[in-house]
Amino acid sequence: MNALFHPIRIRSLVIPGNLFLAPVAGYTDRAFRSLCAEQGADFSFTELVSSEALVRGGVKTDALLRRGEEEQRYAVQLFGADPLVMYRAASLLLPYAPEAVDINCGCPVPKVVKAGAGSGLMRNPALLGRVVEAVLRASREFLAEVPVTVKLRSGWDASSLNYRECAEAAVQAGAALVSLHARTRAQGYEGRSDWSHIADLASRLEVPVVGSGDLFCPEDAEQMLRETGCAAVMFARGAMGNPFIFAQTRSLLCTGAYSAPLAVDRIRLGFRHLVMLASNLGEGVACREMRKQFCAYTKGMAGGAPLRNRLVHAETVAEYRALLQDYLEK
Ligand SMILES: Cc1cc2nc3c(=O)[nH]c(=O)nc-3n(C[C@H](O)[C@H](O)[C@H](O)COP(=O)(O)O)c2cc1C
After folding, report:
1. Last residue of a domain, one of 255, 276, 299
2. Residue 3 domain-assigned?
3. Do the beta carbons of residue 61 and residue 31 sit within 8 Å?
4. Residues 13 and 160 in one domain
5. Is the Cβ atom of 49 under 6 angstroms away from ligand 1?
């Protein structure tokens, strides 16, 4: 077994490797997760899904919850602060058969936080524990007892770094894995993440700790695994437009080297993403959604800026194809 690349066991669930795709709202749709799985992501999370919307039967939530075609193992991530609503929402996941249910304790969005959910839950570790218990009860009763996991931030702000207390409350309530985005709610997505929090948690908890924050290339992942002792890492912004990062990181960890994809490979993968998304969500929605995704797929490419300026006006898959072909021919 490689010292840094290895399987992870979460209760009875065995994940063959430790390179995860993080939940990223607006980006990690099921088409993207499928492409990441194909490129070596060992585990992935849906975008955050509102427990209230799920219980109300929102039409849009179904698309968020479904497994990607190539996705072998995934967790549905729920947010909410009412244990009963979270219990009901988790009980409705039976048709999707996720391998785990993750509880979002990190979302910084004011509307979410005001309702006590997302990173708001970290201000009330006792409630966080009750939410974990409620979801675990639903998992036992409806979902063949799949593991319940939590994703935390370091704390609310620099003066209230309570990731330890929250992680302990979650684990005591039965959480089987803890992911830590090592930034505070006040930081949002700015500034450096503080990996010492990940190392601290990894040394204290008996359950696996997954590290998140500032993983933009394979070397970052290697460094985080080595320096913090976390069980797994999760790529977020570093995977946007770059599902290749999973295979590259695995190659780095296992052989010490990796190769970069060519522009044509990135564009081909982006186009496949568009086609899959169009079959999931319809052509119009997919074409609009893919504008931001293509900004990521073409980032850093020679001639990428004029291509992006043209792509943002594309309304159909055929228009995308023509623009991308034109770019590649030049
Ligand atoms: C646009 C965006 C959307 C995100 N959506 C979610 C989400 O739905 N659930 C969640 O737990 N974290 C979410 N995150 C946080 C990421 O999962 C990750 O923890 C964070 O981006 C830190 O990793 P990075 O610095 O490598 O990007 C989001 C981050 C970004 C930038």
Report:
1. 255
2. no
3. no
4. yes
5. no
pTM recorded for the entire structure:
0.97
Other residues' Cβ atoms within 10 Å of the Cβ of residue 253: 22
Domain boundary among 205, 227, 255: 255
Q: Is 107 a catalytic residue?
A: yes
Distance 169 CA to ligand 1 centre (A): 22
Work out how many domains the chain is built from and give that number.
2
Do 27 and 135 fall into the same domain?
yes
Q: Which helix (H) or strand (E) segment is 235 a member of? A: strand 232-235
Q: Of 107, 166, 230, 287, which residue is the catalytic one?
A: 107
**Residues 93-119: b if buried by 16+ CB within 10 A, e if exposed:** beebebbbbbbbbbbbeeebbeebbbb
The answer to whether position 285 is within a domain reads: yes
Q: Which of 290, 204, 234, 317 is nearest to 29 (CA)?
A: 290
Distance 189 CA to ligand 1 centre (A): 8
Q: What is the pLDDT of residues 50-105, one digit of tens each?
A: 999 999 997 788 999 999 999 999 999 999 999 999 999 999 999 999 999 999 99
Instruction: Decide if 241 is inside a domain.
Output: yes
Q: Which atom of ligand 1 is nearest to the CA of 179?
A: 19
Nearest Cα residue to atom 14 of ligand 1: 24
Domain that holds residue 311: 263-329
Instruction: Read off the CATH number of the domain in which 209 is found.
Output: 3.20.20.70
- Give the C-alpha separation, 71 to 255, whole Å: 25
Neighbours of 264 (CB within 10 A): 11
Separation between Cα atoms, residue 128 and residue 132, nearest integer Å: 6
Mean pLDDT of all residues in 195-221 = 98
Q: Is the dihedral of CA 315, 318, 324, 329 positive or negative?
A: negative
Residue with CA closest to ligand 1 atom 12: 23
One-letter amino acid for residue 263 of the chain: A
- Which alpha helices (DSSP H) does the chain contain, by range? 30-38, 51-56, 59-65, 83-91, 110-114, 125-142, 163-172, 195-204, 218-228, 244-255, 263-281, 283-297, 304-311, 317-329
